[in-house]
Amino acid sequence: MIKKAPIFVALLLVVCAAFEIAEPAGQKQISAPKEKYVYVTKVIDGDTFWVRDGADEVKVRFIGIDAPETRNAGRKKKGHFGEEAKAYVTKLTLHKRVRLELDVQEKDRYQRLLAYVYLEDGTFLNAHLVAQGYAVMATYPPNIKYVDLFADLQQQARQAERGLWAEIF
User: Fold this and answer.
1) Span 141-154, pLDDT tens digits
2) Which of these is catalytic: 52, 99, 106, 112?
3) Catalytic residue check, 69
4) Global confidence as pTM
5) Which of 54, 58, 79, 93 has its CA 20 to 30 A from that of 161?
6) Nearest to 43 by CA among 83, 101, 100, 102
7) Whole-angstrom Cα distance, residue 103 to residue 114?
8) Catalytic residue among 61, 99, 158, 162
9) What digits encode the pLDDT tens for the residues 21-48?
10) 100 and 123 in contact (C-beta within 8 Å)?
11) How far is 87 from 69, CA to CA, in rounded Å?
12) Which residues contact 63 (CB under 8 A, 6 or more apart)?
C-alpha cells in the first residue's frame, strides 16, 4: 500500500494541474499587471499625461475624475480652472515616478491606459485632485472601484468652495 501512494499523489497532482490550467470558456486572461511604476514625461492636462514604461511611451487617463480642459478641442471647450489643474498635476508628477493601478477596463476607446495614480509618497492623486477642487468625479462603469470615495470628496470640496468650486467673480 505504501508503494502505491507516490503514484497516487503524482496522478492527483497531474489532475489538479490540468484543472488549474484550464480556462473557463468566455473568460479573458489578464495580461497586464494590476500595478506598475512609470516615469511621467509630459502632462496634457489635469487628468491625462504621458509616461515611459520601459521603452514605450503610453498616454494615461486618470480613472474616475475629469479635470477642466486647458484648450478648445472638438466639442470640448476650455474650462474654468483648467490651467490651474494642469499646473498642479505638472508640479506633482512631471519627471517623477508614479504608481499606476489598473481597474477592470484597461483602455478607453482612444486607446489611453486607464489608471488610478499614486505619487511616490503614497498620495492617491485621483482622489487628491477631487478633494482639492482640481477635478470632478466622472465615473464610467466598469471602473467604479472608488466611486463612493470620489463622491464624498467632491461634496466636501464643493461645500468648502475649493478650487473650481470657488465663487467666480
Assistant:
1) 999 999 999 999 99
2) 112
3) yes
4) 0.76
5) 93
6) 83
7) 8
8) 61
9) 333 333 333 345 578 899 999 999 999 9
10) no
11) 12
12) 103, 114, 115, 116, 126, 143, 145, 146
